[in-house]
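Q: Could you write out the predicted structure for this multi-component system? I'm mainly interested in how the pieces pack against one another.
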Amino acid sequence: MNWDRIRLEEANQVVEWLRGRRFGVVEVVEARAALEVGPLDDDAVMFRLVLSNPPPGLRTWPYEDMRDLRHAVNVQAGEVELTGPWYVLVNSQREVAAGRAARAAQAAG
Amino acid sequence: MSAIEPGALLAHAAALAGGPGATGDPAVEFRRSVSGAYYAVFHAVALAVARRLAPASAADTHCRIARSVDHGRAAEVCRWLAEPGGGRRHVVAVVARLRANAALVELAERFGQLLTARQTADYDHLAEVGEEAAGEACASATRALALLEELGGSPDLDELLALVALNTPLR
């Protein structure tokens, strides 16, 4: 039995559910899951989400929307009986675009 | 004595999340912001553990006891609250009861999430850590400190802190 593969399949069900979903003003634009080394040095599922940019004038996303998003991940993980630890890491579209541009510039020398 | 004050750490983290400051390099400051947000919560929990263990002791004794609190051991206890059946054999029933306290579970979850974000910010060269990620970490830490305050003196928080202490080797 390949437990890693089973965990990833379970996590990917959560990812599929998350893609395109909205929590208040927050939209999950991209989502992926990977098994990575967690904070306790064991295998943890990392949900890496790219979210829509915060509304103009806000430095980050509204607290209530992010609370609802994180709660929804927990509920869905429970629904698919995801085992082991999981964590949610978020970035905005703007952050991801800036990172890609910086790497491209670095690669171009 | 120059204590590590969680509120001051979080205020500094929030200032760094606001954009270019002392270094003028936002990439550095956003990462330091995420790290600082986690450490604000970590130190608040560590000091709460020490105060729980020796409530009548002086502040410098609390600071010395708090030095033993370990990131991983504390996070392990926090994770127990996220998992059905979590905990060591003799405390499974205690953890199961604590899982009914939504505020306590939220505090435990935020501790684990912030530690993960902190490790990403501090060690993952390829991770994007921008203004929104830093702002989110600071918002989460603000909420965690508020939960710690809100739960202060409750039997459930006392039990969580006791579990962290019992899961912590003295250094």
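A: Regarding packing and overall arrangement: The helical segments of chain A are 3-18, 63-79, 93-107.
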